[in-house]
Amino acid sequence: MLKGKGRLGLAGWCKIVASEVSMAQMTPQVSELLEKALTLSTEERRLLVSRLGETLEDEVADEGVEAAWDEEIKRRVDDIRSGRVPTIPGQRVRERLDARLRNGRA
After folding, report:
1. Would you list the domain boundaries of the chain?
2. 62: which DSSP letter?
3. 56-80 in b/e burial notation, b at 16+ Cβ within 10 A?
4. For the segment 21-51, what is each residue's pLDDT rounded down to a tens digit?
């Protein structure tokens, strides 16, 4: 138990410290927005967070990641087309999955 933190364990203390650090890094404009946002209802905050999250998803992904996925997809397609990787017919996959589910092995 940390002195002055009551029953708050280390994990709780870390959350407080992380929160304080984040607050210290905020601009006055962001701090003001946060204060206003915290006065909203739970549902309003949920909608706000959801919409803000959507705007982050709209941003361009790390170009290195996109390029790596493109290379990986090309490699996998080439492996299949060349016969280096055997394929399994979809019906056989479904049969195997059905058998595993019937036997209680997911």
Report:
1. 10-58, 63-102
2. P
3. eeeeeeeeeeeeeeeeeeeeeeeee
4. 455 578 899 989 999 999 999 999 999 999 9
Instruction: Look at residue 15 in the predicted model and tell me its pLDDT.
Output: 45
Q: What is the mean pLDDT of the chain?
A: 78
* SS3 track for 4-47: CCCCCCHHHHHHHHHHHHHHHHCCHHHHHHHHHHCCCCHHHHHH
The Cα–Cα gap between 56 and 35 comes to: 21
- What are the Cα distances from residue 48, in Å, to 22, 34, 95, 96? 19, 11, 45, 44
Half-sphere exposure of 43 (CA within 13 A, CB side): 0
Q: Say how many C-beta atoms besides its own lie within 10 A of residue 37's C-beta.
A: 13
Buried b (16+ CB within 10 A) or exposed e, 2-14: eeeeeeeeeeeee
Contact 106, 97 (CB under 8 A): no
pTM: 0.36
